[in-house]
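Cross-check.
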Amino acid sequence: MTCSDLTLVPSSHLKPLDVISGFQVRPGFFLSPGTTVIPGGVNFTIQSQAATSCELLLYHREAEEPFAVLKFPETYRIGFVYSMIVFGLDIEEFEYAYRLDGPYEPEKGLCFDKTRILLDPYAKAVTGQSRWGCKNDQKHGYRARVVRSNFDWGDHKQPMISMSDTIIYELHVRGFTKDPSSGVTHPGTFAGLIEKIPYLLELGVTTIELMPVFEFDEMRDCRLLDENQLLDYWGYNPVSFFAPNTSYASTSEYNREGTELKQLIRACHANGIEVIFDVVFNHTAEGDERGPYISFKGFDNQIYYMLTPDGHYYNFSGCGNTLNCNHPVVQNLIMNCLRYWVTEYRVDGFRFDLASILGRNENGSPMNQPPLLQALAFDSILGNVKLIAEAWDAGGLYQVGSFPSWNRWAEWNGKYRDDMRRFLKGDTFMIHAAAQRIMGSPDLYPPEGRGSNASVNFLTCHDGFCLNDLYSYNTKHNEGNGWSNADGTNDNYSWNCGVEGETDDPDVLSLRLRMMENAFAVLLCSRGTPMFLSGDEFGDTRYGNNNPYCQDNPVSWLDWSLIEKNQNLFSFVKYMIAFRKRHPAIRTDLPAGRFSFPSMSFHGIHPWEPVSDLESHVLCVLFSGFDKEQQIQDTIYLAINTHWEPVTLFLPDLPFEWNWHIAVNTGDPSRTIFQDTEMPPADHTVLLGERSVILFVVKKRSV
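Predicted model, tokenized:
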């Protein structure tokens, strides 16, 4: 029997064949990277193409020195894979790491050093990271723990929400509940987020998108600025792709890491809410030549990273290195990683940070049909999960509307953000671009191709201004980040409504509220999948910081007391989310039904007349169709005036037995929203106020 036949043999029948450093061992499961628990032992498997030898280090929990060093015999290596079963190990009593030897030729990308302690690339849990704000001892390296895979999912079912019905809510696990105003028992944790599920249900979002929850070291670049400790708070520098960030757990989870995250996902699913992960496969926390050796540099630096001909790191990520995603070894790791999160954690989808990097060749050039993106698109395990690309990178590659998709990938629509920000604040010459964005960006996603389901529409996300700040600041105020206000984008397309920053001026505050209501009304009445940043629904502020990646403090923590202060905005957002859910004509094409209207059409002040005035600030979009499920005629007219003067608007004619009614009027100081039974009828002509939105629905006249 050969070593490769071991996977066919019940593990309880496996017997030791050798003794190394006092432990009984035998060749292991070469096809199972990482660790596998078997009765009476643990299998360890790693791979390295250029290493000449490999040692397994076993530590008692938190010990400085290993209690055992087991060198893999040559007979425990097949090809480039080392595999060994070690008997007599209790997973609760040890941590592990590796040391590899091999050539040191940096100009060829080879950086082997047999003194460096390396983390298993497939580690399911990383030690020394569970206490937020405590610095890991770098000289001891990173170590891994073996994790039990015995979580009980019960009769769990995933929500499986279509893209057209999805409403995404982006949040940071720690910042969501860390502020005392959150009122949770376990602030800043997965458990704290579980406590907020009733709030998510009240708000009405269908899907939460978690900023990075893979293990990262928040202390990586910690520094002190004016007595404020700055950390790698956002977490976009992954240490391990397979391990959850244990500092987000409310309790220690030795050898059951990830349990609280699984409990969060199970609780969300039980309430019909999807969970999407924001994943970072474009770079790692190892940085460039000056960065630490954590894992990949020591296993096969020349494979895992894109390198220049002289061995330096390409930096298309802006973070020091670029993962070599389309190398078969790296591609296989990423595929295994995503399959692991889907099967072990039941994740509903992934948003890929700087996803254009995933389509670059080993020399950095863009590929027409990147094998990784294609493999993800057609993978069977990933067949029902959402794949969402941030379709650009820090190297200048911008692929919004052209990201390689195989009709499978959706995209963060950066053009929606930029065009709609400009239009809503009153910029001229934006009328036609805004119409395209509201109608699902058919210029980017033609109906005969991916269609509007490929467009994730957003005005705000973790990058850039939050919604309150979008209408409170003309320029960024990132001085607190310590880079002399040089970091963060300058292209904010924001407007402070007359006063920079905080103010007590009631007129300015009223205008800002109206601008935020306009933004939500348009976002939630746009074809495509809407997404917004947590806290925007109640006017949370970052005080003008448009890049608070390092701010682990009230700048980034949600201030839940603002719900009461900004109750009108909060109620408006809830209403608009419910309105979108009630009206399928906004979300998808429906048959014409009783009217001859097209499913979507673009209008100006006068319906059905081409908008030839490119300087116009009045845009109307008609959504219409017959909903067979509800057996109703669903017709909505979205009217937007971004000018500083009101206009007289003419509504489309209707058959006699039908009439337009007002559902939303952000320009009405007495009432912005009208419940279904309260909607006042509209005349053929309506005054559309300055910088305001009116939303009309068709109802039958009462007899």
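The longest helix spans residues 328-345. The two ends are 86 Å apart (CA to CA). Passed to J.P. for a second look.
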